[in-house]
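Postdoc handover notes: sequence design on the structure in folder B. Input tokens:
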């Protein structure tokens, strides 16, 4: 990730953390929706011309944009019918499985696309958590796992780890996908309130352990001595 994208990512994380806090205080999704939409729009405008290696937007980014749009719709319309909500989430999840693959196959993968994809995933997860609060009466504590990406980015800002140290693995990606799907299923009426509670609790615990492990790895000593974070600061 280049420096300009890193700066935007930290700014976006700060804004989103503030938006989540505003929702917790006001129980209104409008400030969070405005912050999320405005920040993503800022990303698209700021990096115009560097979306892909050939300067175009690219099919992969189009799919990611669809996911972002659907996430914002879910955040704005908590009175959508179950069928429309399910369709929106299903399309968003399908786009998540295709955008990166299409970008790589077409030779259009880029640092912008990677960041855009990651932020769209985080936004979709947050949207589903908001639906659980409104539709299934899950407590505000479900916003904790929804905020982990933003909090982790802000944490990394303070210790400045190497880029390699903060990259996810297939395990963390699998946990993320499984968590989104599990919480999405909890929106179905056939899932009991108790089932929703225990599923959401299990997802929160799993993501908490995953992020704690990621934080621990930031301080893991390198073979030559000293942590990667410390070495990065010294350089």
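Designed sequence:
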């Amino acid at each position: 990730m280049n420096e300009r994208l890193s700066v935007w990512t930290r700014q976006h994380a700060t804004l989103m953390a503030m938006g989540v806090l505003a929702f917790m205080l006001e129980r209104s999704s409008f400030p969070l929706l405005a912050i999320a939409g405005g920040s993503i729009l800022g990303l698209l405008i700021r990096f115009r011309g560097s979306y892909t290696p050939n300067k175009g937007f690219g099919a992969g980014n189009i799919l990611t944009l669809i996911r972002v749009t659907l996430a914002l719709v879910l955040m704005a319309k908590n009175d959508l019918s179950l069928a429309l909500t399910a369709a929106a989430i299903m399309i968003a999840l399908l786009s998540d499985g295709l955008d990166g693959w299409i970008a790589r196959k077409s030779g259009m993968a880029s640092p912008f696309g990677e960041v855009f994809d990651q932020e769209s995933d985080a936004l979709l997860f947050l949207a589903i958590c908001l639906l659980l609060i409104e539709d299934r009466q899950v407590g505000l504590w479900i916003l904790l796992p929804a905020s982990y990406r933003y909090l982790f980015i802000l944490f990394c800002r303070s210790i400045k780890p190497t880029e390699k140290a903060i990259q996810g693995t297939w395990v963390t990606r699998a946990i993320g996908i499984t968590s989104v799907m599990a919480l999405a299923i909890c929106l179905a009426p056939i899932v009991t309130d108790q089932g929703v509670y225990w599923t959401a609790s299990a997802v929160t615990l799993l993501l908490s352990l995953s992020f704690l492990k990621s934080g621990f790895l930031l301080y893991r000593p390198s073979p030559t001595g000293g942590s990667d974070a410390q070495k990065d600061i010294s350089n």
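Context for whoever picks this up: DSSP finds ten helices and no strands in the chain. Don't rerun without checking with the PI first.
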